[in-house]
Each structure stands twice: as C-alpha cells, then as structure tokens.
Amino acid sequence: MDNKFYITTPIYYPSGRFHIGTAYTTVLADSLKKYHILKGEDSYMLTGTDEHGQKIETKAKELGKTPKEYVDEMAKMAKELWNKMDINYDDFIQTTEERHEKIVQKIFDKFMEQGDIYKGEYEGLYCVPCETFFTESQLVDGKCPDCGREIVPMKEEAYFFNMKKYVDRLLKYYEEHPDFIKPEYRKNEMINNFIKPGLEDLCVTRTSFDWGIKVLKDPKHVIYVWVDALTNYITALGYMSEDETKFKKYWPADLQIVGKDIARFHLIYWPIFLMALNLPLPKTILVHNWIMMKDGKMSKSKGNVIYPETLIERYGLDATRYFLLREMPVSQDGIFSPEAFIERYNFDLCNDLSNLLNRTISMINKYFGGNVPNYVGTPNEVDKELEEYSIQQIQKFEEKLNEYEIANSLQEIWNLVSRTNKYIDETMPWALAKEENQEKLKSSMYHLIENLRKIAILIKPFMENTSNNILRQIGIQNDELKQWKSLTDYTQLENIKVIEKGEPIFMRLNVEEEIEYLKNAMKK
Ligand code: MSP
Q1: Are 503 and 473 in contact (CB under 8 A)?
Q2: Which residues are CB-contacts of 329 (< 8 A; sequence separation ≥ 6)?
Q3: 251-286 pLDDT, tens per residue?
Q4: What DSSP element (H or E) covers 181?
Q5: For residue 18, what are the CA distances in angstroms to 14, 284, 299, 306?
Q6: What phi, psi does 470 have (nearest 5°)?
Q7: CA distances from 222 to 134, 219, 269 (A)
Q8: Cα of 263 to ligand 1 centre, how many Å?
Q9: CA-to-CA distance for 518 and 524, rounded, in angstroms?
Q10: Which atom of ligand 1 is nearest to the CA of 297?
Q11: Domains of the chain
Q12: How far apart, in Å, are the Cα atoms of 138 and each of 127, 409, 429, 465?
C-alpha cells in the first residue's frame, strides 16, 4: 500500500527527565507525521521507552523501587510530556511489555536456529552508563566516546551475532538505495569508520545483570540491549504475533528518525537484523545532529539544561516547537541559547507573522467592514507576482521537506510571510483607499487573506494551534479551504468575514528580562 506513512522515533532511555534534545526528535517525527496526514495519507507514528539494562536496574534500586515500578512511572511521565507537546503518536511501546518481550525471544531463537548467533566469550572495555563495549581505538582520551566517562575491562560468556556474514549484502544495499540513509554523508561515515576497518560481530547477551529479556534456551543470559531495543519497531506492529494486520499494513517503515549517537546501530545492525529476518528494510533512516549549548553538551552538572516544560509554560507550545525545528538544522548541530530563542520569538513570530495577521485584519475591518472582497483577478503586476511567488514557495517548501531539511522548509514559509508583509508596503492599501481605487484595494485585501490562509495551512504540521487560530481570525470555516490540496488555488474564497478585532498571536517579549529568565531556568 503506497498511501501510508509509518514513522518512528528512537525509544528513549527512561533514566531521567527528558530535555529539549529528546523532545526535538519527537517533535520532528510528529510534525512529519502531521504533514503526511494533511496530505491525506494513512500515517502511523510509534514512540516509546527502552527499559532494560543495568543502568535502569541500578537507578530503580537507588530509588527503592522495583525496576518495573520505576520504568512504568517514567513511561507515564513521557506520555504526559508528549501530550503536553501535542505529539500525535499512535502507539507507545515499552520494552518491558509482554507483547515485546515474547517476540524478542522468538526473534532471538530464530537467529540461533539459523546460525546467525553463536556462543563465545566477550572481553572488552565497557561503559556502564552507556551499556556499550568499545574497542581501544574507539575510545576518546581513554574514555567512553559517547559520554566521556570511565570505561572498565570486562570479560564474560556471551552470544554474538555474526555481522560479517551480512556485511557485503549491506554494502550492496547502501549502493542500490540512495534514499536509505539521509543525510548522505552518514553513509560514508559508516563505511569508513565501521565497515572498512572490519565490522566486528556484535555481542548480544549478558550474564552480568538480570534486568532484561531472558534467552529461552539459555536463561542465565539476558538479551542485551540492541536486539531488544531495535526490534521494537516491528514488535509494536505485531510482527510474529497472532495478529500481524498492522505489521502487514505499515512495514517497512517510511521514515525512522535517530540521533547521530545511535546512527551506527540503526544504519548497520538494524538493517542486518532485518536481512536475517528476511524482512524489507525501512525506506529512509534520517540521522539528525544534536542540540548543544554554548559550552557544549547539555548537562545537569554544568547547569545548562533546558527542559521543554520551561519553554512551553512561559512562551507557549507553538513557539517552542517552532524554535526547535527552525533553529536546529538536521544535518549539523544546533545551539540553544536564550538570545536566539527570544530573537526568533520577537522577529519571526511576533514581527513577521503576528503583525501580518493584525495589519490585515484591521485593514479589512477599516475598508470593508470586515468582509473580505471576492477575487477580482490581478489588476496589479505586484498581485500577479505575489501569486506566482506564493505558488513557488509552496513548491520549495515541499522540496525541502521531502529531503527532510526541516529548518530550511520553515525558512521557505517565512520567506512567504516576509514577502506578504512587503506586499502591504508595495501596494499601500491606505493610498489606494484615499484614491478610491476600489478594484486594486479589493484585490490587495483578497491577496493578503489568501496568503494568510496558505501560511496557516503550511504551518499546521508544526504549529497546529497557531494555524487554527489564524484560520479562525480570518474567518475560514469551510473545511475544504483548510486542506493541503486547496493550497494551489488562489481564487476560491467567497463571502469570508474576518473577526472584528484581531487578537495578537504572539506578543513582543522584553529581551533582557526574558534572557535573564531563561538563564536562571537553565541552572535549575
Ligand atoms: N534507547 C536508545 C535508543 C534505542 S532506539 C532502538 C537511546 N536512548 S536515549 O534516550 O539516550 O536517546 C534517544 C534519542 O535522543 C537519540 O536519538 C539521541 O540522539 C537523542 N538525543 C539525546 N540528546 C540530544 C540532544 N542534545 N539533541 C538532539 N537529540 C538528542 O539512545
């Protein structure tokens, strides 16, 4: 079935409160899902929590809870946050649910039966917090390359997945499917850093801790993180269960979004597991970079963490979502700074968007008693140019979005906002009113409303409340005029009445006060 869109986020470690980095991946996935819904596709989004492992076991113990009590509380917290952020997920999987555990055991058995998994002994350098073994050459200054903490030597009996068996098939797959990995440079990174130096077999079980899914045929082993974690994307759809309807409908995934730190697992091990299961691979895996702070990674001890709730409670959900998506280019690290946040708010949202709406509504009330004139054609060169520009911006927006360049796609919408503001200055409706040039004045008002309608539809996947608010204020009630497919038309509006007094959607912030506020919030 072509008209479907299955999108996944990573499943998050429930090891603490989620900061804006975690929220970023989820907002990105949610916005793309909403875009596909707007386009009329059957879209399905999966998120969840990755709940096994030594770190969780230790954390629960510290809090005097059983691991299950602890992870359930954390999953509840995650769901509350996603609801607050208007994340429209269809399923939330916890890896401690029976529906997942049972299937992971079946998958593991199948790998064993096929001879993909063999027993050996693991000896290596291990990072306890990251639950990952590293080779000497991967370490950075003798420490964990992911978190920078101390690593310890470890040795234990373990099962291994024979990665070498599949590596040629994987390389061929990369070669033949240019859309499989985005951005493209990540593919070369995988080949040069991990595959060319010789891909090592992956250790897939542990005996050193208990909190995990037991290997059925050898229960002193628990299945260690990646076979358990990665398969969530198919167990959640009911793969190998009694009811595979969803799996048949939605697999392969259309888009799987992951952060750069887990790229290796998703671009190498995950496709290999799928090959071993004889399943099709996801169409695209999108690797995004990180939200950093001016002084490096977010960290509680540095006092530079920002939580989504802080931003939402003070500036609203849409401003928060807008900032995350607009300021963080997918293919490079982005920096969160209070200055940048307030600037985007004041310039993009308040000066550009909110003012465009207010100016338009007040002029239509002043000149036409709130009634939007019907389309009179394009009596001006400027009107014609604006129409062409708008259609072109919509195309550009889609091109960028389809390449998953989200920040750039938002930029294209804001170019349209700026161009529409400029149109007011060019047409000078106040002068047209003085000259009693009714035709041009009508046309100018029509074009402004029509562009606001288009802008409202374009921002809907990212900022739903603002989108609905604009449509309400400009008097668009007919559902058809809120649909994606109505974007290409320019002439349909008839008998539209705007509200009597425009309500500002974003109010200008006091720069110094708000920067101070955010700086303090980051220390808490
Ligand atoms: N549990 C694993 C994923 C298993 S998926 C089968 C995991 N969890 S995590 O909670 O540590 O990270 C989840 C996601 O959040 C990752 O994609 C990671 O890159 C992302 N981020 C964590 N910090 C981030 C930023 N500061 N900025 C952007 N994304 C960040 O890894």
Answers
A1: yes
A2: 289, 405, 407, 408
A3: 999 999 999 999 999 999 999 999 999 999 999 999
A4: strand 181-182
A5: 8, 26, 12, 9
A6: -65, -45
A7: 20, 7, 19
A8: 10
A9: 10
A10: 26
A11: 338-497 (1.10.730.10)
A12: 12, 36, 64, 46
Task: Please name which of 502, 379, 398 lies closest in space to residue 449, comparing C-alpha atoms.
Answer: 502
CA-nearest residue for atom 7, ligand 1, is 12
What is d(CA 10, CA 26) in angstroms, rounded to the nearest whole number? 9
Closest CA to 135 of 123, 127, 125, 145: 125
3-state secondary structure at position 412: helix
Ligand 1 pocket, CB under 6 A: 10-13, 21-22, 24-25, 50, 229-230, 232, 258-259, 261-262, 290-291, 298
Task: Write the pLDDT tens digit of every residue in 441-468.
Answer: 999 999 999 999 999 999 999 999 999 9
Distance of CA 23 from the midpoint of ligand 1 (Å): 10
Question: What pTM value is reported for the model?
Answer: 0.93
Give the position, in ligand 1's atom list, of the atom nearest the Cα of 258.
17
Q: Which two tokens stand for residue 189?
A: 């990174």
Strands 91-94 and 202-203: unpaired
User: What are the pLDDT digits (tens) for 55-68?
Assistant: 898 899 999 999 99
Report which protein residue has its CA nearest ligand 1's atom 23.
Answer: 21
Q: Whose CA is nearest to atom 29 of ligand 1?
A: 21
Please state, in angstroms and rounded to a whole number, the distance separating the CA atoms of residues 513 and 90: 39
